[in-house]
Specification:
By secondary structure, the protein is α/β, with parallel strands linked by helices. The protein has 7 helices and 5 strands, in the order E-E-E-H-E-H-H-E-H-H-H-H.
Length: 179
């Protein structure tokens, strides 16, 4: 039988409980944390979302945080997001029907100022226009011609190319506008 052990360590005792694999559900959870101004606010929002989940079996949560604020990247680099996830997991794993965030990712969205930048700042608007209207294929074509790499590298799909362009625009705007 496949499964895992839920281990609870107390001062002098260790409790083991075998949980069959079919008794655990893996659920995605997407939370918009754009309005949050601090890690503590993110933690409060996440705790509220996790506590509002209704379930009758243990849950492994695949968390995606959506943010238009670049501060979340700094919080990740500082290790504060990882600490916050540990605190949330410690609080939610104590019950018999527990939940645990086993993975999290951050999806950064360009804020609505993107459209305003097209109209306002000529340099940024031209830069964003060029990114939108250029194919990245000529810039990465050399990778596909390299003998060792072409065995392992697949061509980008249109969706992957668009996602890459979005990430490039976000990074450029962040770097150009940061104080």
């Amino acid at each position: 039988m496949k499964g895992c052990y839920h281990v609870v360590l107390n001062e002098g005792t260790t409790d083991l409980a075998f949980i069959p694999l079919q008794a655990i559900q893996i659920n995605p959870l997407v939370v918009n944390v754009s309005p949050c101004n601090s890690v503590h606010e993110v933690e409060s929002v996440l705790m509220e979302h996790v506590n509002n989940l209704t379930y009758s079996t243990p849950q492994l949560i695949d968390l995606t945080l959506i943010s238009t604020d670049q501060r979340i990247t700094k919080w990740q680099q500082d290790g504060r997001m990882e600490e916050m996830m540990e605190l949330i997991n410690e609080a939610t794993i104590q019950s018999s029907v527990w939940s645990y965030i086993f993975r999290y990712s951050v999806s950064k969205k360009v804020a609505s100022f993107d459209r305003e930048l097209y109209k306002g700042d000529h340099f940024i608007s031209e830069l964003l226009y060029e990114i939108d209207n250029q194919s990245i294929q000529p810039f990465i074509a050399e990778i596909y011609q390299q003998k060792r790499a072409r065995k392992f590298v697949e061509r980008l799909t249109i969706e992957e190319e668009m996602a890459l362009k979005t990430a490039v625009k976000e990074l450029l705007i962040y770097e150009l506008l940061k104080e």
